[in-house]
Amino acid sequence: MGGRAAAALLRARFAGECALLALLVGGLVLAATVFRGEEHQARVSLLAGPAGPDAPQYGEVVALSLPALVEVARSPLVLARAGTVAERVSVELVPASGLARLSVRAPTAAQASAEAAAVARAVVATDLLAPAATLRLLDEPEVTRVAPDWPLALGLAFAAAVAAGVTTAAGRHLRRTRVSDTVRAALAAAGSDRPVAVLHDDDPGLVGRLAVLCDAATRPARVVAVVPELIPSAEALAARLPDKTAEPSDGVALVVVVPAGGRQEELASVVGALPAGTTVVAVVLA
Q1: Pairing outcome for strands 278-285 and 252-258
Q2: What is the rounded CA–CA span in Å between residue 178 and residue 183?
Q3: Could you read off the pLDDT of 178-205 as tens digits, one per residue?
Q4: Phi/psi class of residue 41: alpha, beta or left (left: φ > 0; alpha: ψ in -120 to 50)?
Q5: Cα dihedral angle (79, 82, 88, 92), rounded to 10 degrees?
Q6: Does the pLDDT of residue 246 top 50, yes or no?
Q7: H or E stretch at 114
Q8: Which domains does the chain have, with CATH numbers?
Q9: With CB atoms counted within 10 Å of each terminal CB, which end of the chain scores lower, N or C?
Q10: Distance in angstroms (rounded) separating the CA atoms of residues 267 and 251
Q11: Peptide bond into 232 cis (omega under 30)
Q12: Which of 108, 95, 102 is nearest to 122 (CA)?
């Protein structure tokens, strides 16, 4: 039961770390989206109509010239008259209708409305469709708030949080699997063909698992480090294991403490130099 409880605790801690990172990323995305500030969009419609009852080739002129309204509305002359910039102006043409919708975005509703009306008046003043047709304002600017878009912001934050959590979980799993494979490859290179447990030093049930392995081997445990930097960790771990040196045995159950990264060449060297009667029961990644 203790081993199961320790494993459950480790899984819970791992899940908590992933969830915490997911919440952090989601919160940052939400904050970045919301704190961009409010933005309002004002839209006004322009309608093309014949300049008079005898307007020549009215339909052809409108069909050929009205698409140029997109560029005229963002031209330096119109922008200067309206007091806005091209990035905030957009134009939508309604096919086969002679209708165009001008939109202007601004930080406040009043500014958006004023600039949309100014852009529309400046476009009308250019007489783009003369002499066959004219443009006229169809309505007053209609203003809506477009940012922050709460459904979009929450959706982006949720998607970012899920992606961060899944990526973190997958990355940690792959990293642990890759390290375990490297350890087993080093043991195989040293001529060890026995199954060896690969454990992590942050496992809450590490001491209990090692004790079970040593009991199964019916040999006293000995903990060694493959590099000098890990000697204190090996000594601390050895002090926590049951002392069975006084009991009769045929050898030693060896626990090897190795770095969590690298090619594990030191591990292969240590295992290859073990005397007879020594059995490697576990490798601890520190």
Answers
A1: parallel
A2: 9
A3: 666 677 777 777 677 677 888 888 777 8
A4: beta
A5: -90
A6: no
A7: helix 109-125
A8: 39-146 (3.30.70.1130), 180-285 (no CATH)
A9: N
A10: 20
A11: no
A12: 102
Q: Where is 113: in which H helix or E strand?
A: helix 109-125
Q: In what order do the strands lie in the sheet with 221-225?
A: 197-200, 278-285, 252-258, 221-225
Note the pLDDT of residue 276: 72
**DSSP-based three-state secondary structure for 276:** coil
Which amino acid belongs to residue 212? V
* Model pTM score: 0.47
Which residues contact residue 217 at a Cβ distance below 8 angstroms, ignoring those fewer than 6 apart? 253, 279, 281
Q: Which residues contact 83 (CB under 8 A, 6 or more apart)?
A: 115, 118
Whole-number mean pLDDT of the chain? Answer: 80
Query: For residue 39, which phi and psi values (nearest 5 degrees)?
Result: -140, 135
Strand ranges (DSSP E) for the chain?
A: 39-50, 89-94, 99-106, 133-137, 142-147, 197-200, 221-225, 252-258, 278-285
Residue located via tokens 């642990």: 176
Pair of tokens at residue 201: 């030093």
Spatial distance between the Cα atoms of 140 and 137, rounded to a whole number of angstroms: 8
pLDDT above 50 for 1: no
Query: Distances in Å between the alpha carbon of 53 and those of 50, 56, 57, 65, 128?
Result: 7, 9, 11, 19, 19
Maximum CA extent, the chain: 118
Give the CB-side neighbour count of residue 85, counting CA atoms within 13 A: 4
Tokens in use for 206?
A: 């590490």
Contact between residue 109 and residue 40 where contact means Cβ atoms under 8 Å apart: yes
What's 35-100 look like in SS3? CCCCEEEEEEEEEEEECCCCCCCHHHHHHHHHHHHHHHCCCHHHHHHHCCCHHHEEEEEECCCCEE
